[in-house]
Amino acid sequence: MRVQLIDSAYPVGSHSRGVSAQWVAWKCRTLGIETSYTAEGCEAVLVSSVSPVDAPKLSRMSRELPLVVGGAGALSPSAYIRHGATGVVLGDGTAFLEKVKSEGLSSAMNLPNVMTASNKAPTVDGAFDFACPAFTSEEGTRRIVIGRGCKHKCAFCHTSWATPFAEHDRPEAVAVAARAIVSAGDKIGYVTNDMAMHPWAKTLPPSVDASFSIDYLRKSGMPSQRQIRIGVEGLSERLRRFVNKPISRSDLVKCTSWLNAGGKSVRWFLIAGLPTETDEDWAELREAVQEWKKLTPKGVLALSFTAWCPDPSTPLAVMPMTDDYWPRVESFREWFFGGQGWSNRVKLMLPQQPESRLKKALLSMDATERQLREGGAQGGNSGVVYPFATACAAVRRRLLCEK
Predict the structure, then answer these.
(1) DSSP character for 104?
(2) What is the pLDDT of residue 303?
(3) Interhelix angle for 94-103 vs 19-31, to 10°?
(4) 4, 230, 253, 334, 371 from 294: Cα distances, Å
(5) Residue 309 maps to which CATH number?
(6) Is the dihedral of CA 12, 15, 18, 19 positive or negative?
(7) Is-contact 230 267, C-beta < 8 A?
(8) Whether the Cβ atoms of residue 228 and residue 195 lie closer than 8 Å to each other
(9) What torsion do the CA atoms of 212, 217, 219, 223 make, to the nearest 10 degrees?
(10) In what side-by-side order are the strands of the sheet with 227-233?
């Protein structure tokens, strides 16, 4: 069998493929399925997509062949079907590709984890094949897949709620492969949501980049990486507790200062526009930055914002989406560049504006703007059987009470 394989992160017709598409190509090779960059002589088109914002791109792909979408974006499958996908594979594609090889595409399309026009209630498959080699990312880093999903259940995170956790079952083989990559002079990276979830990760050569939790740093000591990323997410202690990411302001500031003293630059990943956000949450962030400046004579701190966008598997998906965050972003920017918050040691990366955030939300939820503004509806993905649906519903009830 021959299939066209497209990575939707790149322009249609490109020969570039990200790590996820490279995994699909590898798995096809192991099964004896030929992959092509063009549709000529192919029986189907496989599309690897990291975000449902790619769904409209399907209209620029071949409509003469069955069009099947997979990847992280496929965890919000409905928009792809509406834009012309024949099927959307939720979760890991191992079982789907094996079924394609053994029984053909028609049989594979009937698997329970494939959304089609006739199956609007798919499950999520978790049978990832970790036996794959290291893949080369766009920036040249050799990346080894060691984990899928996430044990943490942060209320905003699609990865936590839509993907069953799994990790590489041969840590020793990972360590051998990683050391060989480093010995060859290449940069090494690991594909997982959180290195701290893998106790054996400490045996691996350090990666060129990694995200860390405060608890992990407290237990493990100073990391070897030069740039340290911390998923702070909530602007204030209250918001972080609300989304199940409890980090105190004191711990955050002191840990960052300690890392800076160790010669590390630090990046805080922050979410603007989380439900229940207020002016006071932004005021607390200002105070945290000021405390860091007073406590830290040397070192760089980057504030990297993204705008909250509902994902259908998450507890926060049913919360009303407002644009109140943007005036607060502008006020923070004025405070920062106006002199009081300014420092050439603090870098500021602003989130998406409301218009672009709305476009993403419409596709992620496959809902109307009115539904998103009012909250309570999951749109076209309401039938998907996510693996933690019962626990998610319980968290939703609690959050709605706290709202």
Answers:
(1) -
(2) 97
(3) 30
(4) 56, 20, 10, 20, 45
(5) 3.30.750.200
(6) positive
(7) yes
(8) no
(9) 100
(10) 210-212, 227-233, 265-272, 301-307, 346-349
Residue 27 DSSP SS3 = helix
Non-local (6+) Cβ contacts of 63 within 8 A are 84
pLDDT digits (tens, 9 = 90+) for 259-288: 999 999 999 999 999 999 999 999 999 999
CA distances for 18 relative to 31, 140, 241, 364, 395, angstroms: 20, 11, 35, 21, 34
pTM, 2 dp: 0.93
Beta-strand ranges (E) seen in 163-292 are 166-167, 188-191, 210-212, 227-233, 265-272
Residues 238-259 have pLDDT tens digits of: 999 999 999 999 999 999 999 9
Side-chain half-sphere exposure of 254, counting CA atoms within 13 A: 9
- CA proximity to 135, closest of 203, 189, 81: 189
Half-sphere exposure of 320 (CA within 13 A, CB side): 11
- Final residue of a domain: which of 158, 175, 205? 205
Q: Range of 21's domain?
A: 2-115
Residues 193 and 339 in one domain: no
Q: Which two tokens stand for residue 11?
A: 């322009």
Closest CA to 152 of 230, 235, 244, 219: 244
Q: Has residue 148 got a pLDDT over 90?
A: yes
Structure tokens at 38: 């063009």
Whether residue 258 sits in one domain with residue 178 = no
The amino acid occupying position 108 is: A
Q: Which DSSP letter does residue 365 get?
A: H
Exposed/middle/buried for residue 336 (C-beta within 10 Å: 0-12, 13-18, 19+): middle
Query: Do residues 171 and 64 touch, judged by C-beta distance below 8 A?
Result: no
Whether residues 9 and 64 share a domain: the answer is yes
Q: Which H helix or E strand runs over 70? A: strand 67-70
* 185 phi-psi bin (left φ>0, alpha ψ -120 to 50, beta other): left
